[in-house]
């Protein structure tokens, strides 16, 4: 494989102090005066971080397979991105921030077409740009509500009634609709009020925050190994689809859209089969409910396809696909012109994204294409998965429910002492994240190669021995 | 006054074609294929925009007193910002985007203290960083809900009950609270689901989107000139405060916070007196309800103070102050340590802001300080307001309800043909925005000088003659 990254990466991890070490501890204490540090994982020296390696102020360097919660696509201090960041175009985007809906830059069509839209999912040729995953999902939801109400009114030419306008100003029906967005149990779609109403990951994410009375369907939590539970899993998926249809037909606040992650990521790396997702597309289409695919964590190559939903073999595309994280910008794709609201200023805000971040995504896309990183991720993922199967056999109970076969490096397993597992990993020179209650989730960058996978595997084996 | 900006600004506006001209029209047509252009005001050539002047692809150059909906603080292509954008620190922040809550940069405390927190409102020494105005407000609201529920439970040491945790996952009480955020009629606080529930600007912003059943109080819409309606206005403010107190005590979903703009900006540039705001602070304090001041549009100098609420002479500071726009980043300030939730990961998201944008704000602050731009804005505003009073006398009906005296350049007036007024302005070489139904709002940058004000005034007189 390519040794392009050899030139700017260290040979391997090096751990010299406990983490946090003395320098980090002093800096964290200072930071905590002004910024809540209780969720701090590792104070980071980004200047010294490089490729697949994350550094800290005490000189520790770890192989990073968490990558800023799956947000770093092509490595720390990637030379191609440095070059893009130094360019006049980027500087212009950074210092002259436009209100994109009112005053778009003269070359905005080109920035979109040669960047964000160059990788648009099949069937989706338009984009609404946003700032992060939560508002990407919420603007998609808003588009869904407006679309559905327009259908109910009888078309885009029907004007709003006085009663609708007055009641909307009072947050009451019919102006404020009583429709809903359906999501799945154990899903994660963001943390603002609308997105949090669809998030069903953990109580700590939701407690005390007012929520909309929207429906949730059961996600078909599969049993592993898949080949030993084929019948049971198929039945679980069938039951889940039946529940979706039942809720569409009977829930008191009718859903105008279903939002789903291709792999439930924060919720514990829960997968479902392509058949399940094809069934979900069929049911939503049948009942005129939109399908929003939340690719905030799965998108941009990590599953061995640019978009994870490409694994499903859909003939009828999703209505909207949301993105963020590895794109370093955010928004949602759509194809149906009816998803542009019937009047301007209904879907609008001051910034509507960030041109600097859109330009960075363009640079990321060209780096991914130049180095064929999606295909390489598929290959490295296959290698890594095979080796993990071996580890799972040698260390029973330590790599339970291994999952993500054929999904690039988007791999996870359960460990009964998960939090200790993650903590111990740092001593072995690896930065790893968790998800759900017991999953260890691998979220390496797209530049992970077999030699990095070998370093990771050696560390995982070391951890397993310690915890055994 | 300083002629620092002479070196990089044109002499004055130049209008060569209708706007949009032929080049803009062609580019807009292309853009519309992939991006909704119905809210487009002016396709912009940001490379050629300079200081107070905005350029378009047809070579037209306008004095810009709209400034990307009040978002450009120190001029297009400001040399100081270019220098900051070219620096290694900024490039690092741009290409190595951290998950700030988990992996903050080692110097994050310094970036905050020497930037965002250097200008923190009095009494507020902590910050939660966000991406834009809507999520700045929504995270502040979340903090308010968690704070209030903690008080109701009896303290931060009280654990959540099983029933709370289970019901939260179902979006039901008691886990999902039935508290509310109170806002004012004609207010604007953002467009996501929680913030939109507090926004009461126009039906077009709210129609079809589900909303929380939260209370709204009447904003004391003052009559002008103020000196002729002193008694009436005082009575309106008294009535508004009485309504606030009544709603706090009686609304079926008790408010845990009141959110208010120092000047209602999108809603039509509605002002209230310092006495009103001091009264609001007193009432909220009395009833243990938080006061959130939304300085998204008023903040960062335009009113002749760094924060508009400094005009109120509060002895007891607001609980939270939100910011965005001219800060080029976003978030909320707070002082009370109880506004940090009792456990980590309750107020959290992947990015929690953007270090590149935080560094840009730091550069903006140092430019504002170096050139004393807040005081200069106060002076230029006084000059401009005086001249506008003269215009209002000479052109009766054209500059109605002139308002913003003593509030820097944050000035507005009503015109019966407002939309035509704004359109005609471009022919006179000026880019101006509106707000509410009939207001012309001036939102120049902080680098507007008397000579720019003179150009603006000449244009305004020209428009008034055309429309008379």
From TrEMBL, chains A, B:
Name the cofactor(s): pyridoxal 5'-phosphate
User: Which keywords belong to this entry?
Assistant: Aminotransferase, Pyridoxal phosphate, Transferase
Looking up InterPro entries in the UniProt record yields: 4NH2But_aminotransferase_euk (IPR004631), Aminotrans_3 (IPR005814), Aminotrans_3_PPA_site (IPR049704), PyrdxlP-dep_Trfase (IPR015424), PyrdxlP-dep_Trfase_major (IPR015421), PyrdxlP-dep_Trfase_small (IPR015422)
Q: Which reaction does it catalyse?
A: 4-aminobutanoate + 2-oxoglutarate = succinate semialdehyde + L-glutamate
Q: What is its EC number?
A: 2.6.1.19
Q: Nuclease: is it a keyword of this entry?
A: no
UniProt keyword Transferase, yes or no: yes
Protein name as catalogued: 4-aminobutyrate aminotransferase
- What is the residue range of the signal peptide feature? none
The GO cellular component terms are: mitochondrion
- Per the record, a Pfam family? Aminotran_3
User: Per the similarity annotation, which family is this?
Assistant: Belongs to the class-III pyridoxal-phosphate-dependent aminotransferase family.
The record lists the lineage as: Eukaryota, Fungi, Dikarya, Ascomycota, Pezizomycotina
């Amino acid at each position: 494989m390519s040794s392009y990254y050899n030139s700017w990466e260290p040979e391997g991890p090096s751990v010299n102090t406990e983490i946090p070490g003395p320098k980090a501890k002093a800096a964290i204490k200072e930071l905590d005066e002004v910024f809540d540090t209780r969720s701090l994982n590792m104070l980071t020296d980004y200047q010294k971080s490089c490729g697949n390696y994350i550094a800290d102020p005490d000189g520790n360097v770890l192989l990073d397979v968490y990558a800023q919660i799956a947000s770093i696509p092509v490595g720390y201090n990637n030379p191609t991105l440095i070059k893009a960041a130094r360019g006049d175009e980027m500087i212009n985007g950074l210092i002259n921030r436009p209100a994109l809906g009112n005053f778009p830059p003269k070359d905005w069509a080109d920035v979109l077409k040669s960047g964000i839209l160059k990788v648009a999912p099949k069937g989706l040729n338009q984009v609404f740009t946003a700032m992060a995953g939560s508002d990407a999902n919420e603007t998609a939801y808003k588009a869904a509500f407006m679309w559905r109400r327009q259908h109910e009114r009888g078309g885009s030419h029907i004007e709003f009634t006085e009663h609708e306008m007055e009641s909307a100003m009072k947050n009451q029906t019919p102006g404020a609709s009583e429709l809903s967005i359906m999501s799945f149990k154990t899903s994660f779609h963001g943390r603002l009020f609308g997105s949090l109403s669809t998030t069903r990951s953990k109580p700590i994410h939701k407690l005390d925050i007012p929520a909309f009375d929207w429906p949730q369907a059961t996600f078909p939590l599969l049993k592993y190994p898949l080949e030993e539970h084929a019948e049971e899993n198929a039945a679980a998926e069938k039951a889940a689809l039946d529940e979706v249809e039942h809720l569409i037909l009977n829930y008191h606040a009718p859903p105008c859209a279903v939002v789903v992650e291709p792999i439930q990521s924060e919720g514990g790396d829960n997968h479902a089969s392509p058949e399940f997702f094809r069934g979900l597309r069929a049911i939503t289409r049948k009942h005129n409910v939109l399908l929003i695919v939340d690719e905030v964590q799965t998108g941009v190559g990590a599953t061995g396809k640019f978009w994870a939903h490409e694994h499903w073999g859909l003939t009828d595309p999703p209505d909207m696909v949301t993105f963020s994280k590895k794109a370093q910008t955010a928004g949602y794709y759509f194809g149906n012109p009816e998803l542009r609201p019937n009047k301007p200023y209904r879907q609008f805000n001051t910034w509507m994204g960030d041109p600097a971040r859109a330009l960075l995504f363009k640079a990321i896309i060209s780096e991914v294409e130049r180095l064929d990183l999606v295909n390489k991720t598929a290959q490295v993922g296959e290698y890594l998965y095979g080796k993990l199967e071996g580890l799972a056999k040698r260390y029973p109970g330590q790599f339970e429910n291994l999952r993500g076969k054929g999904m690039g490096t988007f791999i996870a397993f359960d460990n009964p002492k998960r939090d200790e597992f993650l903590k111990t990993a740092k001593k072995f020179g690896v930065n790893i994240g968790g998800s759900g209650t017991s999953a260890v989730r691998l979220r390496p960058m797209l530049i992970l190669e077999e030699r990095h996978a070998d370093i990771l595997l050696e560390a995982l084996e070391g951890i397993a021995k310690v915890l055994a």
